[in-house]
């Protein structure tokens, strides 16, 4: 059974089998949270440097890649946003956000 983060008044805790409450989730520095439409990603960060197909748990997804070379050596240099795909005119949704150093 999957686990999800839950925010309490004093901490973040894992809660088994419950849906994720997006209003109480972590955000990026510009305010992007899980579940947001991909249009919000573009609004906040612009077009991705690259997009590629992907899957997670059998679900077809899209990986959006952003390089932050301008940010300096003391901060993560790459943001990867895993999104559901657009369907029936509805934008995809943010499923996962990863901040990391670039891969070699």
Can you describe this structure?
By secondary structure, the chain is mainly beta. It has a single domain (28-100), classed as 2-Layer Sandwich (Beta-lactamase Inhibitory Protein, Chain:B, domain 1), CATH 3.30.1450. Helix content is 8%, strand content 38%. The protein has one helix at residues 38-45; strands at 3-7, 12-16, 50-56, 59-67, 78-84, 94-100. The strands form 2 sheets. A 4-stranded antiparallel β-sheet has the order 3-4-5-6, covered by helices on one side. A hairpin with a 2-residue loop joins strand 3 (50-56) and strand 4 (59-67). The longest helix is centred in the middle third of the chain and has 8 residues, at 38-45. The model has no long low-confidence stretch (mean pLDDT 77).
**What is the count of β-strands?**
6
CATH class: Alpha Beta
**Under CATH, the topology is which?**
Beta-lactamase Inhibitory Protein, Chain:B, domain 1
Number of spatially distinct domains: 1
What is the rounded Rg? 15 Å
The number of distinct helices, counting runs of at least 4 residues, comes to 1
Offer a concise description of the structure.
The chain is mainly β. It is built from 1 helix and 6 strands; from the N terminus they run E-E-H-E-E-E-E. The strands form 2 sheets. The protein has a 4-stranded antiparallel beta sheet, covered by helices on one side. A two-stranded antiparallel sheet has the order 1-2.
